[in-house]
Amino acid sequence: MERLQKLISQAGVASRRAAEELIRGGEVTVNGEIVTELGTKADPDKDHIKVRGKLINPLLAHRENVYILLNKPKGYLSSVADPEGRNLVTDLVKGYGRLHPVGRLDFNTEGLIIMTNDGEFTNAVAGSKKIPKVYVVKVKGLPTEVAIRKLARGVRLEDGFKTAPAEIKTLKPTDKNGWYEVTLYEGHNQQIRKMFDSIGHSVVKLRRIRIGNIDDVGLPVGRHRKLTEKEVRSLLAPRKPVRSS
């Protein structure tokens, strides 16, 4: 017997958190009965489990975990559905069954994002604060060194969120634009854009170039590849980050 949200995530239908919302919304049935209590357990060998009317037992019986690294272009939504009909990251990764993104990249942000059908992996990686995500950032204007040090220490954003310390490396600027490499260990919505907005320098271009020890070398924008077993293991057991004092 396993909790329903765990079974749903193992079937690749949704992450565990999203599965909990499906249960609360009355979209999950066990043996024909609607289940809304999160602690409910079921046995996929004996019970008929349906999500939005579709039986997930075959998915649990024959499913193989898939882990895909996608170099997302701008203009794609990090989601499996969109009521506005915008382009989705799932449109770029075909032939592996139903996949979902691990975390998010903004619609107008490009770079690395992982696609999988493994809800437990998604829950572990998306919720981790030990996995560095590295971005290259182009901003409008030339921020002062004082302003950059302020961002590195952590700032309170307009929505009240206080950012954790970040690693910010200054890259070669142009006459009108600053360029930076920013490393984060958290994933607040549009965090980098909001950080630079807070010092009066809006982000012009944003690209994620590394997740953990996995980089975008040899992977053009719009293309994807499978993660190796070693890469998957490195994300599930990341080393605790060491920051200089």
Walk me through the structure.
The chain is of the alpha+beta class. It has three domains: about 1-60, RNA-binding S4 domain (Structural Genomics Hypothetical 15.5 Kd Protein In mrcA-pckA Intergenic Region, Chain A, Roll); about 65-130 and about 215-235, Alpha-Beta Plaits (2-Layer Sandwich), CATH 3.30.70; about 135-210, 2-Layer Sandwich (Alpha-Beta Plaits). The chain has seven helices and 15 strands. Strands 7, 8, 9, 10, 11, 12, 13, 14 and 15 form a nine-stranded mixed beta sheet that branches. It has a four-stranded antiparallel beta sheet with strand order 3-2-5-6. The longest helix has 9 residues, at about 15-25.
Uncertain segments of ≥5 residues (pLDDT<50)?
none
Would you state the CATH class of the largest domain? Alpha Beta
User: Per CATH, which architecture of the largest domain?
Assistant: 2-Layer Sandwich
Provide the CATH superfamily of the largest domain. Pseudouridine synthase I, catalytic domain, N-terminal subdomain
* N-C termini distance: 48 Å
Strand count, sense and closure of the main sheet?
A: 9 strands, mixed
- What class, by secondary structure content? alpha+beta
The backbone outline, from C-alpha atoms, is elongated
Tell how many strands the DSSP assignment holds.
Answer: 15
H and E order: EHHEEEEEHEEEHEHEEHEEEH
Binned, the helix content reads 10-25%
Gyration radius, to the nearest Å? 20 Å
**CATH topology heading of the largest domain:** Alpha-Beta Plaits
Number of domains: 3
Discrete helix count? 7
